[in-house]
Amino acid sequence: MKKTLIASALATVMFVPTASAIEIYNDDKNSVEIGGFIDARVFHGQDTTEVVNGASRINFGFDRQMGDGWNAFAKLEWGVNPFGDSEIIYNNDQLSYENGDFLSNRLGYVGVNHDTYGTLTIGKQWGAWYDVVYNTNYGFVWDGDASGTYTYNKGDGSVNGTGRGDKTVQYRNAFGDFSFAVQAQLKQDEFEVTADGTIDGQPPVSPMISAQQTVATIEYNNTYGLALTYQATDKFVVTAGVNAGEFKGETIENEKIEETDIIYGVGLTYGGWDDEGLYAAANYSKQEFHDTDNIGRLISEAYGVETLLSYRFDNNIRAFLSYNILDAGDQYKAEYNGDTFKRQFTVAGLHYIWDANTVIYIEGRIDNSDFSGSEEAAMKLSDDDGIGFGIRYVL
Fold it and tell me: What is the CATH number of the domain that holds 358?
């Protein structure tokens, strides 16, 4: 059981939803595998219909047996855009054509593992916080956007280490039915806080991360994370964790800024997403100065709930229903002149699992977000109803 749980913990570090890998080399000491998937979809939303890339990716895994129960390993993963992202640009009285980047960095880390002493990894990797909330992040078209994983308006969570954290050191181990992960993100970052205006001649109560006018310079350095997992039964898992960091700086008017970015929460999971039968999962989190709204304003406090309920029938059809809410509450209203931030949506989907590595799917989203206030139109640009149909071909 202990070895199984350690292997499970390591699998979470290298987690890629519904992905497998093909071994391309093995000499009994060194092995290399290739994995990832190509996902093409037709998407309709914001009154447009187009072919889009469904987070396609390719990765390489390397493993080396070192003897005495030790092995060293590495993982490299890139996001791939195989379908093009063409855009016509009008600049300096000329028309030009631009195409999006074919590759983008997703993961890159190296580590060592021992059955008794656990696993140590260094690099860009899934954060310890993801252990707590990954259980609801299985939809193909829409990620879970309420768990505090993909921060700073749906980025990859690299800034504060909750998603694919940059420059992280992570240790994992397991004892019986209990496993854990601890993490330190060792970095030295500095960025400018900007605002699109002032309130009564003064900068906003809470700074904004994007717009036009620079109001402060912020230093954001190390972050720390902890995740705990308890395998209560063969099918029931309980998770809990926390991630924290601090940023500090000074406004152009010499006012000091110093806040703690923290998120903590719990998760419950029943069953396996890829198994036949029922799968149910939920997580709840509280956060402070951890994320931004859709136009880049810092959220001083909020709570998030994500739920996912699915059933895989014996004919290889999986139906699921997901609900997300991220509510910034009254404090947000007080800081931003009565504006409301409540991201809230429901996703329903059908997946036909043709075989383990080929899935045809359709998913639809009904958005019930409340962004009422002075920035409602701009906020709705990144949250709306939609529908997507596609094919995922797993390597």
Answer: 2.40.160.10
In the 8-state DSSP scheme, what is residue 199?
B
**Which pair of tokens denotes residue 197?**
């205006």
The structural domain count of the chain equals 1
Half-sphere exposure of 107 (CA within 13 A, CB side): 24
Half-sphere exposure of residue 180: CA atoms within 13 angstroms, side-chain side: 9
DSSP annotation of 209:
S
d(CA 228, CA 208): 33
- Between the CA of residue 20 and those of 127, 348, 395, what are the distances in Å? 21, 25, 7
Cβ 324 vs Cβ 300: under 8 Å: no
Quote the domain boundaries for residue 211: 2-28+112-394
Tell which residue, 248, 256, 244, 242, has the closest CA to residue 220: 248
Tell me the backbone φ, ψ of residue 69, rounded to 5 degrees.
Answer: 85, 5
**Three-state SS for 84?**
coil
Q: Using CA atoms in the order 240, 347, 43, 367, what is the torsion angle rounded to 10 degrees? A: -100
Determine which helix (DSSP H) or strand (DSSP E) holds 255, and give its type and residue range: none
Average pLDDT per 10 consecutive residues for the chain, totaling 395 residues: 40 48 94 96 92 93 96 96 68 51 90 97 98 96 92 86 96 97 91 48 43 61 96 98 88 76 98 97 97 88 98 97 97 94 97 96 97 91 92 95
Residue 251 lies in a domain: yes
pTM: 0.87
Per the listing, tokens 């099918």 go with: 235
Distances (CA, A) of 123 to 17, 76, 130, 165: 20, 10, 16, 8
Q: Is residue 89 part of a domain?
A: no
235 contacts 271 by C-beta, under 8 angstroms:
yes
CA distances from 14 to 23, 43, 52 (A): 16, 28, 25
Q: What is the DSSP letter of 381?
A: G
Question: Which residue is associated with the tokens 């596609």?
Answer: 390
DSSP state of 383: S
Distances (CA, A) of 147 to 28, 235, 255, 304, 389: 41, 22, 32, 6, 25
Query: SS3 for 253?
Result: coil
Angstrom distance (rounded) from CA 324 to CA 237? 20
